[in-house]
Write the structure tokens for this entry.
Amino acid sequence: MTLTGRRPVERTARRGYVTAAVLAVVGVAGAGVWGGVVVLDRLDAPSAFVRAVPGEAVELDAGEYVLYVEGTTPGALGAVSVTAPDGGPVDLGPVADLRYDVPADLVGGRDDVLGTGVGRLEAEEPGLYALATEEAVPDDVRLAVGEDVARAGLRALLTPAAVAVLTLVTALALAARTAHRSSSTGPEAGR
């Protein structure tokens, strides 16, 4: 009688634990794949940056951007400045250590070209923003204007990470509920 009485509880408990494990594995694996796709997409983001050689102007919409120097020797440029469409200077704010590999298809197949953040700028109005450097520019150096690659990458990874955490918490809650039910309906519960 005891064996027969415990069997449904054990099956129910087993089902609960298996469901919790499957939920955790599928949720975390799915979030991992999603995060991988997001990372690959973010690695390609610099392809969409606006580029110019120093002395040229770039068309920008209103918003916040980061100014990058792309080349094998970005430090050789000295100070970089930006002029707004109205002719006034644009203040460049500080940026963290931002670097990215410039997509090889943009630099003749080379894989040694880096983009290095040199300043954060606020484009208050849409228009042409002139980019200039203090020193002469080597032929292989360009300026690029685009999003903050680190901040955009972190923002993009937040949703998959939240899904992974939520899935794990749900799976743990299901396992705890299963353990509680099996302990309260087991043969010792009536004693």
Notes: The two ends are 16 Å apart (CA to CA). The mean pLDDT is 82. Residues 62 and 123 are 5 Å apart (CA to CA). The beta strands are 50-52, 57-60, 63-71, 80-83, 89-90, 99-101, 114-123, 127-133, 142-146.
